[in-house]
Task: structure prediction
Amino acid sequence: MKGHMENGKFHPHTEYKKGIRKSRDQFAKLQGIKLKDKKTCSICRDPFTPSHQSAETRNVCKKCIKVLSPDERKARVITGSKLKDVNLSEHNWGFETSGGKISKLRLGNWSDAGWHWDGDEDDIIGYLVRVNRSKIDEEFIEGMEGLGITFNKLKPLLLSKVKSGSWLYEISGDNTRWHFHQDIDEGAMVNEELEGAEESGHYTENDLEKIGEELWNISYSYDFEEFEKDYGDGLKDEVRDMIKDSNNYKEFFEKMDDEDFTYQINENYVLGAEEKVREAVFEAVEKLKKEGKISVTKKEELEMKAERTEGQIYQGKQARLKR
Result:
């Protein structure tokens, strides 16, 4: 390897083949140079050059600034600069900024609440969801607005974080639903499916016992990832509109608490859970049929498929979580 000695150390010479040029990023990594992030519009996230930037605020492109409402445009202009540095550290919550960005978000405490959560700028929407569902919402609003960190100051950041969906877990039920599964009895749903199959007369009592045993080997729990795939995009659109239409924390919290909005989330969850249970029962039946452990005629199979479809429609309309 070619090189030279300097200050008692060997320095290798890097040979580059003709016709091969290292990219700017690769070269920067080799040299230890920190590249500046490419500038993008904070709404549409498209990259732009200075000529494409709005004259009113430098973090929004000319196309997007035209469609903003007067209130939101005003908020954008106000927040064209970075957030001022603050350190709000209360007993049950905290909000810190450093260098114009949110550096720490905190909820709960180990001493009396018995739980603790930390987050950063990427968790800001989920943080507000949890604040709204806590007993410190009014204290939070008073503290934030008292230091000038108004909702309109945060609005551009909130809009930029909608797309990631990192907040969907909190707004769709949080740990109560997705971790502890405390608001629905999926086992009871399985029993209802088996009772319906028994009433149809397609299975003997022995068949139903086999189906029930087979279900022990099949997951029928509707999890967050499935909910996010089924309903995440619709929720993003709704929350994006909520943020745009709100001018303060109270208005945003009220929109999240809207009865129709919360009911739709719960209804979608129940629909997804019901379908997951039906699919699990159907999977168990198909497996047992292939193994020859239960038998169903072609006519009965067609009748079951028809009943399954009718059952989806009926249960989708009737079985709901309480408002």
In short: Residues 174 and 180 are 9 Å apart (CA to CA). Residues 87-152 form one domain.
